[in-house]
Amino acid sequence: MSKTCWVIVSVVAVMVIAVALTVTLLLVLRDTDPFEYDIIHLEGEGLGDLESKAAFTRFRNGANMFWWFYPSLAESPQDRPIIVWLDGVLGLPPSLYANFLMFGPYDLNMNLASESWIQDYNLLFLDAPVGTGFSFVENSTLIASTPEENVEDILYTLHSFYSLHGDFQQSPLYVFGEGHGGKLAVEFAVRLQNAINDGNIRCNFKGVALGNPVISPALVMTRLGFYLEELGYIDANGREVVEGLAERTLNALEQNDSAGAFDNFLALEETVSNEAGAVAVNIKYIIDKLTRNQTEGFGGQRVSLLNKLFPEIELNRFMDETVAPALGVRSEAPYDYGRAAALDAARDTFMRPAVDKVDHILENTDLGVWIYNGNLDALSNTPGQLLWIEDLEWSVQNNFIGNSREVIAIEGLVEGYVRASDRLHFYWMNAAGHSVPLDSPLAMRSVLQRIAGY
């Protein structure tokens, strides 16, 4: 064989080896799990007789996110949708509020809830961000300080869930978020869809459902004075006070003072009650009749309503003394102890709008976006929410704007209205405040059926 032939053969051989090595490397990279976490299984005796799984997912060398999964009571739970519930830094954690007060399988007296969503849906409660609910950090520096860290924590937790429940990977997945949880939900949806596209997680993601979401809070504040005056809670002078606070909040954001804007947001209740003249108003549920000493805590925290429903139960003590031992949660810190730190960590980002994330979901994915808003919530008042919803910039926004509202009637009662396009849906919920599942459960079930089909 000539020297030239040997050279050609050698070159070809080198090329074949290079291609083989490249393919091998790609296969190795494809099979490498990009997620590093540990799952801490809780081995308590359990709470009640229904099947459930509770655990911590530990990541970032000491951040621990608590999750609690209830498979549906339907005959084939893998064929039913999974509802992931997020709440955020304000309000009450999902392991308590959504679970025991809204639609979980048991109430606070440990009686089976007849209207629980578990009849038709798989429920996955996440105490996010870390520091809230049962979720905790082993070092205070591990409290997430950016939206990116928060959604990454949630992604790791969801990945760990599927690592134990691979038979649910084809179940339709809907991420629900209430209040600040709505902002978490849209930020997480973008991250999750990217992870799906990259092949880093397998699930049947369908979309996000946002309940009275805090998506553009400073903009929504600009309609609060109008809202309260129209309902008779304040007069023209009070409206001027509230709108002055809203204007200062917008100015703070424009000057990149997000922390100052957040401080104004947290001052809303005091301003409305003490300076604008409403006096003892629950801005999350405007028809709540409060006494002056019940307005402590942001948004009234539904104090009067919860006291009426469960006057003998102190909520955090119930989680510490009843739920934690039953699940096998062992912690010296009390339930929800890290909320103040999580809230403080959110000061620089909470008020920044996430409207661009909603636009991104609508323009760049096939996911659905469902928004439902309780009309009795002054904090996330419906006129203010419509300012950003009707100003979305995705390419077929005009189809949504051009569609007429439809009435939602249940047993002859008008419970609300809906305007919908193929991907975007907005619900006006009449007899509800900040938490539609709690205030108007039958109407919420009707909305849920429209979203997820059961």
In short:
The chain has 454 residues and is α/β, with parallel strands linked by helices.
What is the CATH homology-level superfamily of the largest domain? Alpha/Beta hydrolase fold, catalytic domain
CATH top level of the largest domain? Alpha Beta
CATH architectural name of the largest domain:
3-Layer(aba) Sandwich
Sheet with the most strands, sense and barrel status: 12 strands, mixed
Structure description:
It holds the Pfam family Peptidase_S10. Belongs to the peptidase S10 family. This is Retinoid-inducible serine carboxypeptidase. One of its GO terms (molecular function) is serine-type carboxypeptidase activity. The chain crosses the membrane at residues 6-29. The protein has 454 residues and is of the alpha/beta class. It folds into two domains: 1-32; 34-454, Rossmann fold (3-Layer(aba) Sandwich), CATH 3.40.50. 41% of the residues lie in helices and 16% in strands. The protein contains 17 helices and twelve strands. The chain has helices at 3-31, 97-103, 147-164, 180-197, 217-221, 224-230, 236-254, 258-266, 268-275, 303-309, 315-327, 339-345, 355-364, 382-389, 397-402, 436-439, 441-452, and strands at 38-41, 53-59, 63-70, 82-86, 122-126, 136-137, 172-178, 204-211, 368-374, 406-410, 413-420, 424-429. Strands 1, 2, 3, 4, 5, 6, 7, 8, 9, 10, 11 and 12 form a twelve-stranded mixed β-sheet that branches. Helix 7 packs antiparallel against helix 9. The protein is globular and about 60 Å long. The N and C termini lie far apart (75 Å).
